Amino acid sequence: MAALVKRVGWATRPLLPVVLAWDLDARRWVRALRRSPVKVLFPSGEVVERKVDPRKQPRKAAAEASHREQRQKQQIQGPASQTLSTWEESGLRYDKAFPGDKRLRMLVITPLFVCTHSSVMTIVKSRPFREKQGKILLEGRRLIADALKAGAVPKVFFFSRLEYIKELPIEKLKGVSLIKVKFEDIKDWSDLVTPQGIMGIFAKPDHVKMTYPETQLRHTLPLSLICDNLRDPGNLGTILRSAAGAGCSKVLLTKGCVDAWEPKVLRAGMGAHFQVPIINNLDWEAVPDHLPADARVYVADNCGLHMQVQAQGSNKASDYGWVRDQRPLKFHEYEEEEGDLESGESQDWLPKLEVQSYDSDWTEAPAAVVIGGETHGVSLESLQLAESTGGGRLLIPVVPGVDSLNSAMAASILLFEGKRQLRERVEHRDRR
Description:
Layout: H1 2-11, H2 16-34, E1 39-41, E2 47-49, H3 59-77, E3 84-86, E4 93-96, E5 106-110, E6 113-116, H4 119-125, H5 127-133, E7 135-139, H6 141-149, E8 154-159, H7 162-166, E9 177-180, H8 183-189, E10 198-203, H9 214-218, E11 223-228, H10 233-246, E12 250-254, H11 263-269, E13 278-282, E14 296-300, H12 332-338, E15 354-357, E16 367-372, H13 380-388, E17 392-395, H14 407-431
Parallel strand pairs: 4-9, 8-9, 11-12, 11-16, 12-13, 14-16, 14-17, 15-17
Antiparallel strand pairs: 1-2, 3-4, 5-6, 7-10, 8-10
């Protein structure tokens, strides 16, 4: 029959549109018979829903139906059926994130800033990101508690157990986004072997607006610390901890130092960031503005500029091999122009600083100690600042042939030596 119709169609042109129209209508009716309508609307206006067996539904249709039913149930039951949970005793509200929750991939930190799933680790590892967005990441209950006590402003907390949040001051959590996640998520974000189950994103603290502990303020000494080209996070964190323990009035970090708010520095500092003012990323021209007008700057020059031959009967510190023979890399460019440093011909360009032992009296006036990095040593700018303030070079005796001390160790020795001298001066004055 089909062949006959085709032959007739080929033979007589006027029948071709009729055959094509019949073919189209047949296809439409076949498609309509295959459909499974969810609702049927009768001419009378009555609507009848059709129950369909989920096992016979396609996967996509089953997922859409399930999602539609869940949404209708939430509309009927109200907000209590959603993922928001409320503390009855405090009135604080927290979000509970489930596996595959989109909020773990798009977390709103502020109304103007959206953080993707990977941004938690971006805040951890990227210094430009932290400086541009003004955000830092703190991990651990003690560090977060110290930050809140000092007046740091939290934005978001991620926690795996509700008890961790309840340990924090309730009044500090008003307006903060609280998101409960699985411990596996925190473990993925953290670079600790054993994460503590709570992480917080804070606004980058401003030392002017911070509230430091009263005990720390009572024991503050006229002693400042300047970090010059310190690039090891562990060393800087340990130095900050020593500065807080010695009672330093402030810590200044020049450009070239590692970021003080890097997670490794925060862990090594053990809360020192919230006990002593830290001023980050300073140019050398701006350093004197943060020191007392009568302050003297002393350089802990572990990378000495001259290597003196040990001489018997001499009382100069540099004659006893207390300075290692590796010159700072920053001075190499001058060696090519001025000749050999050890020959004595090129020493005119160097600042003239008195070399003295670390245990000599150097705290008569407010003092600032410069600690250089182990690789590059102190910079020329630090020596010039020491010369202009009437300071000098402080050297710690080391057995000849032994390399210079670790920067954190040298800083600790000098800071606590300065504290000892200041304490003895006060005791001597009281005895009078």
